[in-house]
Amino acid sequence: MNKSIRAKVACKYLVCALLITGAAACEKEGFLYDGVTDQSGTEYLVTDTITMNMSTAYLDSVPTSNMGVALVGTNNDPYFGKISASSFWQVKAYSGTAIPDRAIYDSLVLLIHPKYEHYGDTTLPQHIEVYRVTEEIKRPGNSAFLYSRSNFATETTPLGQIQRTIRPHRDTVLRIAINDVLGKEFFDLADRNATTITNQQQFLNYFKGLALKPGANSQVITSLRADDSLNLRLFFHTTPGEIKQEYRDFAVYNSATQFNRIDVERPAGSPLAALSPSKRLLPSADADRQLFVQPLTNLIGRIDFPYLKNFNQLSKFSKIMRATLTVRPEKGTYKYPYPLPANLPLGVITNGNVIEDTLRSPLTGAIQYGTLVLDNIYNTGTAYTYDITNYCIAQLNTTDNSYRGLALLPPRNTGLTNFDRAILGDGRNSTNRITIQIYYLRYK
């Protein structure tokens, strides 16, 4: 048979293979496949029964500094628990035009600018308190980051607070009045042009920074801009003659030391409560056939294929042509105010839960974000889909030491600036199963 005819026959058999629903038992553990053999002895096969082990993996360290976002508030998530966020930063020293003679102090105000993102119901009240930091904010050791569990001492009494609902897209700037004792102190130092407030190092020794923390009545987590718009504003006016009000700003000093601290209290009886630095994996079999993804609270989804390396043992010669993975969120877990993340990258992870790389498209080389499809009517067709062809091929010749699993991760640029979360079904979930399909050739 010439090559052209053989190619046409191959295409026909491949279509047939995809349509056949009967299954033959595989000779190797972990596989079942359907197959048709052409006249040359080549089989065109598809398998969708590869063994998958799924777990919720706990990450020890989640970097939250230098993200350009300040998170503050408390939210009670029915699945992930009571989550609180606080933000810390250093303040830039006084600079600019000198305060005019005979100026009079008016007030000191913290200006905060909400972003559009939030975690929880925005119709519920927000309660934010401002604290003076009393400990030097610094990165640990030689680390390039501060982390979600980093913490620094503050005064016990807030400098100011605000209680109100914050409306996304409408409330673009909020003002928190700061204690006048500190305000007058700042004004006096600035008025005298004292090096305590004009020299950056001396200023950091005197005023180590600010922290935003949730007050007792906070019921939602708000995302704020952590750039030059997050600043203390010192108001004063000048006399005699016509009264003229002026101000000077104290912005964020070092973005590398601005970070968000996250505190988590898992729901009573939740299997997530078992996860910790000493227990880093929660099998889906122990979590009602679910895996949980919320990177900012240390949780990612892990998928392992223990028998994938046996694939080449199916025959003397075989070749993977294509492999797809479809991940389905658990029905009823992504209603308002908890939408699914629009992007959910898939990464490569070691046995020690170290993320090594992000899966890219074999066709374009671009990072894969899951191509989310939403089924808002029945909630059974909602899914993320990935091309894992290159990953499967790479794992065929691995050893126990070189084996890599897959991990559902946050987007590299924005994933650790919000509380995006997903609850996903495993391979035995009754309504929202994760599935894999591998299309391959086997030569006899």
UniProtKB/TrEMBL annotation:
Family annotation (InterPro entries): DUF4270
Keywords: Signal
Signal peptide: 1-25
Domain of life: Bacteria
This protein's record includes keyword Signal: yes
Protein known as: DUF4270 domain-containing protein
UniProt source species: Chitinophaga agri
